Amino acid sequence: MNDKEKTKEEWAAELIIANKELETFLYSVSHDLRTPLRQISMYVDLLTNRFYDSLPDKARHYLDNIADSSRRMSTLIDDLLQFSCTGLQEMRQTNLDMNIIVQEVLAPIKQDNRERNIEWRIWAEAEPDKGATFYFLLSKNDSASFNVGFQNAIDY
């Protein structure tokens, strides 16, 4: 049977199977990422607890950056796990405060670039002191996925 002859039901059945395979893959990958991340975090904690005070300032800065990145990676893995289950959750419309999301996304970028002279200009066309309202279809409690997408948009 060629693509033109497929019915809506057949397309829907194939889509359901593909989504289940994607959910399984995301779940597996996110769990596989946890083991090396736990080891990184363990060694960072070990170095911090045993040698932090005796390290030069630059080395402490590097260790702090590794620890922060490790925590962010853990959050991304948690978000990936949550995302792998979104097909099982009901979609809903929600309001997101974009100002909060932008500040959360920019905080580590500002931290990483604090020695550079960057002027951050962020605004929205909206009523003064009321902010802008955006509507998104998200799965239940899934604003974290939007944060990750927004972070990727800024990074790349």
Give a short synopsis of this structure:
The chain has four helices and two strands, in the order H-H-E-H-E-H. It has helices at residues 8-51, 57-84, 98-112, 143-155; strands spanning 91-96, 134-139.
Task: Tell me the number of structural domains.
Answer: 2
Give the total of beta strands: 2
Sheet/helix structural class: mainly alpha
The CATH topology of the largest domain turns out to be: Helix Hairpins
Provide the spatial order of strands within the biggest beta sheet: 1-2
Through-space gap between termini: 41 Å
How is this fold's topology laid out?
Blueprint: H1 8-51, H2 57-84, E1 91-96, H3 98-112, E2 134-139, H4 143-155
Antiparallel strand pairs: 1-2
Helix pairs in contact: 1-2, 3-4
Give structural notes.
The protein is mainly α and 156 residues long. It folds into two domains: 1-88, Helix Hairpins; 90-156, no CATH class. The protein has helices spanning 8-51, 57-84, 98-112, 143-155; strands spanning 91-96, 134-139. It has a two-stranded antiparallel sheet.
Protein traits:
Helix Hairpins; mainly alpha; flat; 156 residues
